Amino acid sequence: MDRVYFDMGVFTYWSEEALESKRLVSKGTVLVSDEDALSGVKDGSEQVDADLVDMLKNLSEAGYDLNICDTLSVSEIKQMLTDLDIGSYFHQIISAGTAGPISKSLMKIRERDDFSLFVGCNATVIDACDRSQIPVIAYGRDFRKYAMDAFSYARYPLEIEDQIATSMIVHTVARAAIEKNVRLLGIDGIEFAGKKVFTYKLGRYFEMLGKEYDVVDLEDFHRSVEASYKGEDPVESYYFNGFNKDKLIAEVLKPFKRDGVIDKVVYCLDSDNDAFVNERHYQLSEDGLMILIGTMMYREPLMRYFDMTVYMRVDYREAEHRASLLDTPLYGDDPVEVYKTKHIPAQKMYLQRHNPLDDSDFVIDNSNYHRPFFVD
Fold first, then answer.
1. Residues 199, 121 share a domain
2. C-alpha–C-alpha distance, residues 167 and 145, integer Å
């Protein structure tokens, strides 16, 4: 069962974006003030943002089990739900004045494979969720206060849906990795596919679950620009010579696989002075999980080391757009030009020679980074 819990503050809060969008509405070809939309806010009475109601409908239709979790009394919550005319969307109410009883209730309801998530800013419920290993999406009047410590945050109702969808993907990958006792998890995809952002969220989820992990970035094992462009064809040179995989295997992957642990400092290439001075410290115990992120990895000699693989797919035009937003050039060159002439052709070569879309354990389409989804 996939469960989402809300505190009541979610439904009495109008975000700045929601208020702004309601100030003017289109009626035919004339823009008029929408006084009805703002009247409840102006006079202090409670009113539900229409976008929140749409969100509840969408989540219900998607199969989520919606519930209330708050420190208000059950009678107060029921009365508010009736007044706001949204009571039909919710199945259970969890109510207590302290975090302990709330946590016990959440744990009692949750089954082994359940996905659970809380949306709101109630400090007591957030504490209970931390104890229960339930991620929190901060939303409400105080969302900025909890944004940094929460799993994620939302500024308006549609963003709540986006964050829930992303959290579900992270949950699915994290649970699979833990259940399969994965030691080396790969996250592959073209540059700007969103690998680092996804890895960050996955790491936050592992931390919440008490799972030890460390991240190895293939980019730290790049070769010099001269080596990457060595040969007549720069695309093939990048494809075959762009990364020092032998160094990665010899100094990190092979020792970790052999010993089951790692506590090692590795010196990687600094392109500015062409010297191995960039220090990376990798440390994992026998229960730790290593995440290796990079591009064009699911081929020999690296492929044999992965226990589970994730491939992040993104539309090439979107990748070019993301590259164009870089403040600084990539390796001293125009990033879009590098993408068009080297990275994207090499990635297409990779997809032609190998089959990560079919062979990976999970394929995530991240062309719309607000709403990624699994590719069947």
1. no
2. 20
Same domain? For 149 and 253 the reply is no
Q: What is the pLDDT of residues 58-80, one digit of tens each?
A: 999 999 999 999 999 999 999 99
Q: Report pTM.
A: 0.88
Is the domain of 311 the same as that of 346? yes
Would you list the DSSP string of 190-226?
STTSSHHHHHHHHHHHHHHHT--EEEEEGGGGBPPHH
DSSP calls for 270-288: ETTTTEEEEEEEEEE-TT-
| CATH, residue 188 | 3.40.50.300
The answer to the question of residue 199 being in a domain is: yes
Is residue 176 assigned to a domain?
no
Model pLDDT, residue 228 = 60
d(CA 197, CA 189): 12
Distance CA 109, CA 97 (A): 18
Name the residue among 277, 197, 195, 191 with its Cα closest to residue 242: 191
Cβ atoms of 67 and 94 within 8 Å: the answer is yes
Do 333 and 208 sit in the same domain of this protein? Answer: yes
Q: How many domains does the chain have?
A: 2
**351 φ/ψ sector (left φ>0, alpha ψ -120 to 50, else beta):** alpha
Same domain, 7 and 152: yes
Contact 198/273 with Cβ under 8 angstroms? no
Q: Do 164 and 189 belong to one domain? A: no
Which string of DSSP letters, residue by residue, matches 25-66? EEETTEEEE-HHHHHHHHTT-----HHHHHHHHHHHHTT-EE
Is 177 contained in some domain? no
Q: Which residues of 46-75 are buried (b: 16+ CB within 10 A; e: fewer)?
A: ebbbebbbebbeebbeeebbbbbbbbbeee
138, 222: one domain: no
- Establish if 338 belongs to a structural domain: yes
> 71: domain range?
2-170
Which CATH number covers residue 56?
3.40.50.1000
**Residue of 150, 178, 67 lying closest to 116 (CA atoms):** 67
β-strand partners of 136:
118
Q: What is the pLDDT of residues 173-201, one digit of tens each?
A: 999 999 999 999 999 998 888 999 999 99
Instruction: Assess contact for 95 and 108: CB atoms under 8 A.
Output: no
